[in-house]
Amino acid sequence: MKALSKRILAIAPSMTVAIDTKAKEMQAAGRDVVALGAGEPDFDTPEHVKDAAIASIREGKTKYTAPTGIPELKRAVCNKLKRENGLDYHPAQVVITSGAKHAIFNILSAVINPGDEVIIPAPYWVTYPELVKLAGGVPVFLPTSVETNYKITAAQLERAITDKTKLFLLCNPSNPTGMVYGRTELEAFAKILVKNDVFVLSDEIYEHIQYGTKAISIASLGHEIKELTLIVNGVSKAYAMTGWRVGYTITPKPIADAIAALQSQATHHPANASQYASVAALEAGLDFVNTMVVEFTKRRDYIVGALKAIPGVICPLPEGAFYALPNVSSFYGKKAPDGTVIKGSLELCRWLLETHLLAIVPGIAFGDDTCVRLSYATSMGELERAIERLSKGLAELS
Ligand code: PMP
Ligand code: GLU
């Protein structure tokens, strides 16, 4: 067989997805795995959303749509941006994509040339560097740690900018750190980005899953930064619609047109029924996500408290999203009763899954080997079982 594409060979498969798949396979095989791997709300999609999809199918709305999505959904996205973010956009600036992951792929494909640098704060969501590489770009990481509350400074951002910098990747609130940049921090970033004419991909998928001061969109900080902001969002997290595969991009019109051309040749559009379901989700406002956030708050408080109570574990309090990212590096170099040496986050997570049936994600997948990620978008009962297994496992290491 001839060699595969170099672009494909350069990218790694998603470890969050791999762990979720493995945990689900083990559960299907009858093993009692506690799965805190993938970040996916355990709530069911709201009934009115399902009803809208079913009604659209019954009405025969089952043919191709425009590659950028149905007009009703693009209007609903613009209305949402006006209502929730105070931002004015035209539907021609919106492209409906097959999930937010695909939205990121589309934006990077539209703006990155080979050799362009993309600045990514670490720990980062697994997918970012791989999609940057796929587009021919060069990821440039800005390290953070528990000491800096997993946040970068404006000075760090400024120092990383070179004449090759094309884009800054901002995930706010952040997966996996749970940290949230407030207005003052975003203003400082915006000033630097405008001065250097650097795009910002603003991943706002967790915008409504926040526990303190609400983050704002960096696009709302003035005309100049709005012109450089490429917004990614979707319905997966806020409306418990991960499997429906609907996301969207909001960008200046020339970029939306480029994405539309790409999409017309590649995926055409997400499923018709999923788009009608998303109109219903967006038009119903924020009651559903606010109810989830009440639950997530209780779960966050429980899991962070329980993690901090384990000797040797350091865990900052997440301000948004639904992940805890404790530093567990004090256990590295220790030995398990079966002889396994825990060299880093990968061995720790593998050993916990195999021996204690607990699925969590190694920090190395997010570019930081000192930590592990636990998703608390699952029931309190499962979280209690997870903590029991984790504490027992860590206590066995010596
Ligand atoms: N961005 C971030 C930060 C995420 O955590 C996720 C997780 N799914 C996505 C984008 C992709 O969302 P979707 O399921 O809509 O593709
Ligand atoms: N975004 C979620 C996560 O980080 C879902 C899995 C994925 O797409 O990475 O776990």
Spatially, the strands of the biggest sheet line up as 2-8-7-6-5-3-4
SS-based structural class? Answer: alpha/beta
The topology string of helices and strands comes to: HHEHHEHEHEHEHEHEEHHHEHEEEH
Radius of gyration: 21 Å
Total strand segments: 12
Overall geometry? globular
Q: What is the first-to-last residue Cα distance?
A: 48 Å
Low-confidence residue ranges:
none
Helix content: 40-55%
Largest sheet: 7 strands, mixed
Briefly summarize what is shown.
Helices cover 42% and strands 13% of the residues. It has 398 residues and is α/β, with parallel strands linked by helices.
Task: Walk me through the structure.
The protein is of the alpha/beta class. Helices cover 42% and strands 13% of the residues. It is built from 14 helices and 12 strands. The chain has helices at residues 6-9, 15-28, 47-58, 71-85, 100-111, 127-134, 154-160, 183-196, 223-228, 253-265, 272-283, 287-308, 345-356, 380-396; strands at residues 34-35, 94-97, 117-122, 138-143, 165-171, 199-203, 229-234, 247-250, 323-324, 358-359, 361-362, 372-375. The strands form 3 sheets. It has a 7-stranded mixed sheet, with helices on both faces. Strands 9-12-11 form a 3-stranded antiparallel sheet. Strand 6, helix 9 (223-228) and strand 7 form a beta-alpha-beta unit. It is globular. The model has no long low-confidence stretch (mean pLDDT 97). The structure holds 4'-deoxy-4'-aminopyridoxal-5'-phosphate (PMP) and glutamic acid.
